[in-house]
Amino acid sequence: xxxxxxxxxxxxxxxxxxxxxxxxxxxxxxxxxxxxxxxxxxxxxxxxxxxxxxxxxxxxxxxxxxxxxxxxxxxxxxxxxxxxxxxxxxxxxxxxxxxxxxxxxxxxxxxxxxxxxxxxxxxxxxxxxxxxxxxxxxxxxxxxxxxxxxxxxxxxxxxxxxxxxxxxxxxxxxxxxxxxxxxxxxxxxxxxxxxxxxxxxxxxxxxxxx
Length: 210
Ligand SMILES: [Zn+2]
Prior knowledge:
The protein has 210 residues and is an alpha+beta fold. 39% of the residues lie in helices and 16% in strands. It has an 8-stranded mixed β-sheet, with helices on both faces. A hairpin with a 3-residue loop joins strand 7 and strand 8. Helix 2 (74-83) packs parallel to helix 5 (138-148) and helix 3 packs across helix 6 (168-188). The mean pLDDT is 96. The structure holds zinc ion. Zinc ion binds next to loops.
């Protein structure tokens, strides 16, 4: 995928996510790795209104080269790429159900959501909770970096998910699966529930290693 194709894909995905209510206002951001650095959605722009020509370009050291200023959450993306050399794209959303789950008092910080469906296990896998940090705090990127080597998806407490993928489609598919699973989890609160068994989860992990 060349740079102009990547710019178009970011704008198309952003519009689709915004129209489907996965992000709102100017929240959420998308990045893609290119040959000489990264493309990243700009700060203070709705994902539904991204101009491909104005997407921020960063060099291989993460410095802003051209286009509008990148998202203030650029450090989250760069922390993921630093620990995951095969990551080709990162998506971060403030998607409603995932944020709601990230604020629940009784979740397991080592793996937030139970295995409700096979697709969740295959696309997301284990989901660690990153402790709360205020916006812009460098500690947040450091905490993401600590989990990123082992996990391509993390959930920021009282904030939202950050997901890396081997392609933009894979990152988008995984973060959407995560959001839908969070929605299912909330729907199931108070209901007697059968999650996948540890044996079923182990068989999926063996068959579809992430
Ligand atoms: Zn955020």
